[in-house]
Design goal:
494 residues, Herpes Virus-1, 5-stranded mixed sheet, alpha+beta, 3 domains
């Protein structure tokens, strides 16, 4: 199994992702750039989410503004409630999140919702000092995570960078009801940047200040929580769940989740199923993922029911998705602060305040988890066995020998023939080194033109995962590559 260090070494060596503004020593922590291949993998993760999750569930997608006025976050509760417990070193001024520091050192479970007094007492009782300089730590206090900005030259209107993408969806709700012929239940999705003033950004893209979310808010009538189209498609599908207070992950049918009142209704079970199915497409098995049910003291302040979707990594279980039953909290509060009627008008004329089921996906964390589970590191080679649908390239084209003009010419013809696919052409270095470069960045197929290609008008196509090679007629190459990439045919059946 690959480790966190293996992933980071590969990421830096192949410029998948790396610290932003890295040429400057004063660049802040918690910001990362993506290089060409990393950006391609990230884009394809989003594309698969859009195709298999957003479009197939008939969600509508928006693209909301990143900067929003102060009143939005007064309504959402973020300015009052969105805090982390922190402690500061009196000697070196380093800042730490108190609950995380206590958990790491004592190996006991401390929660962020614990009072400042309880956490301060725990620091003193356990005689915890600054991990960096062994200095004395200050008492714990709450620190707001919002990133504040000023907008406008004259007025300097107070605004904030959104800490989650969902608030754009809520502020768009009224317009969507008037213009998009919405019928409940209705999901509204968007993908974009969010910002949080993390106390101690760490572990590269796993905990950053700027990050990307793939968000969906499903609006529904709470009195019709058991009414959902396509229920029969998932009712017998098994969800990997870890119930609150239990250590074991269980496989429970959607229908049983509802019957046993483990979830609030069919709508919740349905979208848990669709979420898990998406991550199966990303390559995760049932042994590698779970929905962990959150206790009352773990849930966000706005949530009635929460399930963290987590996957198994070398760092332990890593949360990728927050699934929250937000009830009518958001629409209710935005109605109060905006003084507009945001109720939904049903066909019979009845007005309701819709409830909301949230599926908030961390895109960067998802990318990291996919990289780790796909990475195979051996003594003499590194292979990134990404699912074909999210590989940065579809194929690479190589002339066997770069100093033979006839091979180069034929290779260029094949490269042009594959226009429309994402193909890389490379004629530098030994064929082994060219294979190795493509294996490292996850390219699934390498197409080589040799002297036999000139005689028989065919090519050798090599499978990344197995190293197996087969010959394919050039006239069939486009169809063959298409079938391999999109899963219509396996390499072994060529």
């Amino acid at each position: 199994m690959a480790t966190y260090d293996d992933v980071i070494n590969l990421a830096l060596r192949r410029s998948l992702f790396y610290p932003a503004s890295e040429i400057y020593q004063n660049s802040p922590a918690g910001f990362y750039d993506y290089g060409p291949y990393g950006a391609a993998i990230k884009r394809k993760i989003i594309d698969l989410w859009r195709k298999e999750f957003v479009q197939k569930n008939n969600f509508i997608e928006i693209d909301g503004a990143i900067s929003m006025p102060e009143s939005v976050f007064n309504a959402s509760g973020h300015l009052k409630m969105f805090n982390d417990p922190v402690t500061k070193c009196k000697k070196c001024s380093s800042v730490f999140r108190a609950d995380k520091l206590l958990t790491e050192i004592t190996k006991k479970d401390f929660k962020e919702k614990m009072s400042d007094e309880v956490l301060t007492k725990a620091l003193r009782d356990n005689k915890i000092k600054c991990p960096l300089c062994k200095g004395e730590l200050e008492d714990v206090k709450k620190s707001n995570l919002m990133v504040k900005i000023e907008v406008g030259i004259a007025g300097k209107q107070n605004c904030y960078l959104r800490p989650e993408t969902c608030q754009s969806i809520f502020t768009n709700w009224l317009r969507m009801t008037k213009t998009m012929r919405i019928k409940l239940p209705q999901g509204i999705s968007q993908v974009g940047k969010a910002f949080r003033n993390e106390i101690s950004p760490r572990q590269t893209i796993l905990r950053t200040i700027e990050f990307t979310q793939m968000e969906t808010e499903v609006f529904f009538d709470s009195n019709k929580i058991d009414e959902i189209d396509k229920w029969d498609e998932v009712k017998d599908y098994k969800i990997c769940v870890q119930l609150a207070g239990r250590d074991k992950v269980e496989m429970i049918k959607c229908e049983d989740l509802v019957k046993k009142k483990i979830v609030s209704g069919k709508i919740i079970a349905y979208y848990l199923a669709r979420t898990q199915q998406l991550y199966e497409m990303y390559g995760f098995t049932s042994e590698e993922m779970r929905f962990r049910q959150l206790d009352d003291d773990e849930r966000a302040f706005y949530s009635k029911e929460s399930w963290d979707f987590e996957v198994k990594t070398s760092l332990g279980w890593l949360e990728l998705i927050a699934n929250n039953y937000r009830t009518d909290y958001d629409i209710n509060n935005h109605m109060k602060w905006s003084k507009l009627d945001l109720r939904y008008v049903e066909a019979e004329g009845k007005k309701i305040i819709p409830h909301v089921w949230e599926i908030s996906i961390g895109t960067d964390r998802t990318l990291y988890a996919i990289l780790e589970r796909s990475l195979k590191v051996e003594k003499d080679k590194t292979i990134l066995m990404l699912p074909n649908m999210i590989s940065p390239l579809h194929a690479a084209v190589f002339p066997l020998l770069s100093n033979k003009e006839e091979l180069v010419k034929k290779s260029e013809e094949v490269y042009k023939l594959l226009e429309g696919f994402e193909v890389f052409y490379d004629k530098s270095g030994s064929i082994g080194k060219r294979y190795a470069r493509m294996d490292e960045i996850g390219c699934p197929y390498c197409i080589t033109i040799d002297f036999e290609s000139l005689e028989k008008d065919d090519v050798t196509i090599r499978d990344r995962n197995t190293g197996e090679q087969k010959r394919v007629k050039i006239s069939n190459l486009r169809d063959t590559l298409n079938n391999l990439i999109f899963g219509f045919q396996s390499f072994s059946k060529l």
